[in-house]
Amino acid sequence: MGACLNCNQPLTGKYCANCGQSGNVGRLTTPQLLSDAFAHWFNFDSQVFRTVKQLTLNPGGTSLSYITGQRVSYVPPFRYFLVNLALLILLQRSIGLGVESISQEWTDSLGHQAIQTEMVRFLSSYQNLLIAAALPFFAACVWIFFRRSGHTYAEVMACVLYVMGHLFLLNMVLVLIFRTHISGYVAARSALQAIFYVWAFRKFFQQSMFATVIKSILALAAYFASITLIAVVVVVAIIL
Phi and psi at residue 3, in whole multiples of 5°? Predict the structure, then answer.
């Protein structure tokens, strides 16, 4: 039957037993090129669709499945985080939400204090990048507060990457819904983050709801304090 054009192994059926490529590969056509481009993303059995679906329905359980061995079934957490972060930044900048609109609304309430105004502008312009920069610290806080669960720092980081990456995806929906209502967007995003983190951590760490809520609040408070500290240092350095 010939050899596989991908790995040169002998073909024994319609598909290569070594790499899985079809044995019937002809010249590339335009329809095939387009099909290959979108099949991976929109196939209901694809890794991407399965990851999005499971993180929507059970974020903590999905993170547990990944760290306990189901690696091929899901998009790797760091890749999922980066892709959704990039997509959210592009969407926010394309419609103007989250940058000038948010900073203008917040600075109007502050008056003309230079440092406060500049810090708000910096936070609103680079909020998602600041979130990403402080992520290792947040994972460390979560790991410390939930240390009795027995998970390693890397396992906690995987969970945090999945949860935060999926929140970026859900925030895209909020951006489209509240594109002309800035305060509504900020309120909805804050509520979504709080609920989603508690829900995911409750399943992932297998602790009581009360303990999960308290520890999640403490970890998030430390996380947002670190983001604010980074912003203050940068803004003061710019002004001085």
Answer: -115, 155
